Amino acid sequence: MEEKEQAVLVALYIDGDEAAAPWSKQPGAGRPGEGMSGREDEEKEQDISLQELWDLAEACDIAVAGKLEQRLPHPDKASYIGPGKVDVLGYIMVTSKAKIAIFDHTLTPTQHKNLTRRLSRYVSDCRVLDRTALILEIFEKRAGSREAGLQVEIARLQYMLPRLVGMHDELSRQGGGSGAMSNKGAGETQLELDRRTLEHRLTELKKELAKVTSDRKTQRKRRSDRGEIRVALVGYTNAGKSTLMNAMVKRYTRAEKQEEKLVLQKDMLFATLDTTVRRIRPDGYLPFLLSDTVGFISGLPHQLVEAFRSTLEEAAESDLLLHVVDFSDFNRTRQIEVTERTLKELGCTDIPVIYIYNKADLCTDPAALPIVRGDRIFMSAENGIGLEELLRLMEKKLAGRFVEKEFLLPYSRGDLVSFLNERGAVLKTEYLEEGVRILAKIKTEDYGRLRYEV
């Protein structure tokens, strides 16, 4: 088994913020946030942020070997933390055999460059990562499709461009080359040449992504033209969106097709990046398309939001949003705010929303579940508790999209019988002498068509 890389987490608390509760990763020590009393509530914000940084490191297969915390009136412009603390950090990295320093916020190019140079005196091959770089690394590991790979690489190059200075120890080295990427003159530095190389690569990637995006838009338009109801799962990462998707697939799709329709389901941050769309056909309810989008997180790099915009538009063009919340996480209010802020940025402001408080069985008697209160449902996707109640709640939210009508169809119109079975929810069928009587729920636009057919 390959040994994991070791890292030291670095957190800076600005005066005026609440202090973070102390924590450590020593044997017997709890994870951040565990066992907090009511009087410690004021101190939990930084504690939560640092816990999330810890979880991000683990999601990137990096083991946390230690931590360093500091309080300052404001971040140091040159090194983020104070100059003396940089030396302390170097000592901690040496004693813990860590080769990575992970900072809790985005570093400026100057801070990154200075920290790398200073820490290299202690650890020759050290790496300095900030929160943005760490999330980018996770996305790079998780990208399973060509589209996700393009999106992540574009975001990574956009992050790297302003930080090129820190990647060169000698800024006056001369560059060379030929063809499209040749240097403009003998005085061009390697830094300038590398910048042009990255910019050229970025342009090519954007062109390739535009083609993939065009194909995705064509698929969405095709579904829109068919008038299919579209429902999108959104929420904070690891809230249980993929678990809910799989629960729906297992219960409401044909058994022989279930295995190929299941998505990756893991208890980790950003287990899936690719948007997956599945057709769900529950008995007694209209069929709908359910999409599982990439999860959100506090401080999600704007480069990633922009790069994944075409993928996230799956949510922006949906008829209903299912906002999945981890009810067992005491930080759920903040996670809801982060998700809603990101959705607003994507233009998802006028779409009906149902709040799904998932994992409620972890902090509530499962026998009392599900609980429905207005547009909120407390349930457990993992145990399949509350799926039927969720469907009823969805039907209420989409009431304007369908009607329940009775049709008497002649036996010669088998095409219309098939149409009702495929596009609607057939509730009752009677075979009479004059034809087939069908009671069905059907979308209003489909009903308009059928009125002129029978």
Structural descriptors:
elongated, 14 strands, alpha/beta, 14 helices, 454 residues, single chain
Characterise the protein shown here.
The longest helix is centred in the middle third of the chain and has 36 residues, at 190-225. Helices cover 40% and strands 19% of the residues. Helix 3 links the parallel strand 3 and strand 4. By secondary structure, it is an alpha/beta fold. The strands form 3 sheets. The chain has a 7-stranded mixed sheet with strand order 6-7-5-8-9-11-10. A 4-stranded parallel sheet has the order 2-1-3-4, sandwiched between helices. Strands 12-14-13 form a 3-stranded antiparallel sheet. The chain has helices spanning 44-59, 83-96, 109-119, 131-142, 146-160, 190-225, 241-252, 255-261, 302-307, 309-316, 332-345, 387-397, 414-423, 444-451, and strands at residues 5-14, 62-72, 100-103, 127-129, 230-235, 276-280, 288-292, 320-326, 353-358, 371-373, 376-378, 402-409, 425-432, 435-443. The protein is elongated and about 90 Å long.
Q: Give the assembly state of these chains.
A: single chain
What is the number of helices?
A: 14
Q: Structural class, judged by helices and strands?
A: alpha/beta
Ends distance: 68 Å
Uncertain segments are 18-39, 169-183
- Kindly state the mean pLDDT as a whole number? 84
Tally the beta strands.
14
Strand proportion: 15-25%
Cα-atom Rg, whole angstroms? 27 Å
Helix share, percent: 25-40%
Query: H/E element string?
Result: EHEHEHEHHHEHHEEHHEHEEEHEHEEH
Tertiary shape: elongated
Give, in spatial order, the strands making up the sheet with the most strands.
6-7-5-8-9-11-10
What can be said about the biggest beta sheet? 7 strands, mixed
